[in-house]
Model the fold of this input.
Amino acid sequence: MLKVSEISASYGPIQALREVSLEVGEGQIVALLGANGAGKSSTLRAISGLLRPSSGSIEFMGEPIHRRPAESIVSMGISHVPEGRELFSELTVLENLQLGGYSRRRAAVRLDIERIFGYFPILAERRKQPAGSLSGGEQQMLAIGRGLMARPRLLLLDEPSLGLAPLVVREIFRIIQTINREENTTILLVEQNVGLALSIAQYGYVLETGNIVIEATAEELKRDETVRRSYLGY
Amino acid sequence: MESLGQITTVLTAPTAAFLAAQPPWENPDLFFSQIVAGMATGSIYGLVALGVVLIYRSTDVINFAQGEMALFVTFVGWSLIQADVNYWIVFVLVLALAGAIGALVERTVIRPVEGGPVLNPVIVTLGLFVIFNSLTAFIWAQGQLPKGFPATPLGSQLEVADLGFARITQHQLMVLIIAVAVMLALYLLFNHTKLGLAMRATAQNPVASRLMGINVGQMLMLGWVLSAMVGAVGGILVAPILFLDLVTMLRVILFAFAAAVLGGLDSPPGAMVGGLIIGVVQNVASTYSFGPVFFGPELSLPVALLVLVLILLVRPTGLFGRRAVRRV
Done:
């Protein structure tokens, strides 16, 4: 479904990605792992069009997308829930969700908002509140809900567990799995909590300083000596 | 001996004015008329301030050329009126031209300096100020200035509109009505349309907006278009009152910036309220004495700015602003 081939990208003089290649199959949950600054977020930014790769190619459903601007990629079916959530903090929960469906028709959007409230009932209660007034967990739910409003075929999730209480994290990961199973939404998941990510993913890649160093099934990664020592800590 | 006479004149003039100025309760009709007339002038400041705010809140750029862009298109309007074109057609054409200039300016000179050092857009808009002022001078100041500009056909500048509690000119009444209509139209656009929501989203978080599929460049350009159009409405409405001159909009833009800052710089309703407050203060200060102090029309500008400073001391972000809190 998604095929990233040897992309390199940099922020000014700092090279963020060196010939990164990865593949995500339809219906899968694929984890992208690695330490801080390894290039996980940059990979997602390159896929969603926020970061233009200097070389290499990205294909989605057989179509090259690496030259398209971010605003036209979302309507192809890729939705990016960015690092730090990037909500419209002064707009209400409802307005944030409406913006998530910006690339779609208005009538369809209205129905979909109810679908999101089904996943995250707390958002329905807070619908008139500014997004900035929500708790961290609620904000993450809103960020995911906003991403789903575009009806993506591929959802890019960047650190959904960051800064959240363990109970909230478990709830969010449960919903991510539900979305994957029931809506057949493919998910590329960036996560620092490696154990958690591998518990729901089928396949994983490990990035180190802009390079993919290991790729394997989740089961193999959990057993892998290096992964265990570097990321799982046992 | 002669110099002594001059000193006496200097000293007696304010005293005479002070004696001439009645306290408000002796003539409530005059008092309310001054308030409403101040609101009319203030709503023009508010419109121009609104233009400043629309651009500032989406790009953090202060458009110093806001007034001069309006001046230029209002002069074009004057030429069209001299050519016997219908007033309302002129009105629409001037707005369209303003919008086109706004779009052109954003695309050609603002976009390249966006995201660079803070001072760059400042220098660019100051440059635009000079360009539009000089261009206006070059085209129209060869003849005689100032030039008269007609009030709207709906309200003469010379006839009185009696509101019962206040008497203002018909044109002042029209100014108030048109300013409210413009505010209402913008309110509906921003709060009840998908386009308006996208513009507000862009102002807050351009990166996230792109991820939603919003064309951020288009939204920023549209902001300049709206801003220039609102400013042009201000220009057309103030021209019959102040006459058209190279400094006409200078007399408006100072108060408009004050109004924008007073309202909080990123709040459209704040710009309008700020404009009204400054217009009213200016009018009241030039009519009445405060204890032994009479400011008169000459000192109405410093008085209005004094009110601005006092309010900013209490509320540094302006009446409706929130932006500065986030920046700390």
Summary: Residues 28-59 of chain B form the longest helix (32 residues).
